[in-house]
Fold this protein.
Amino acid sequence: MKNIIIFGAPGSGKGTYSDAIVERYGMGHISTGDVLRAEIKNETELGKVAQGYISNGQLIPDDLMIDILAKTYDAQPAGKGVIFDGFPRTIAQAEALKKMLAERGHEMGVMVELVVEEDILMARLLNRAKEQGRADDNEETIKKRFAVYQNQTAPLIDWFEREGIRHTFRWADTPNKEAMIESIFAFLDTVK
């Protein structure tokens, strides 16, 4: 299986669909959110720096993320492919990821883009805040995260398109989790 980059706005289901893909295909899973939350919980130096950015709805600096990613990637089981969840978020990060993988003789693989309307995303994130007690999921921070996504992350869509690896799945076409997962699986079953 090739590497997979799962891509979408905050609340689009990246973690949910990543978990389903990992379970079905036995891939490694690198969630930058999980990695960063662990660093914050363990109060590492990186965690303290990351918390400052996250609290303000900002992205973590690229050099820090690439270093963490390379270390985490190298610890994954060989040959099964890895799903990148929450990374890259900028063109510079995408280029750095492509370079990091090439240095290991690997490719980016495919990009699975999850497209969900903003009002649905807001409702999901506010609900997640209640269920999981995530302080970074309040309405003001969510609006900042949407703005960061539109300004810094969404331009990556064209970059992935030029790379020839973009594959889009729209919530409006399959408006329930199970149908969305099945459409993603149907596509991934064709990827070698």
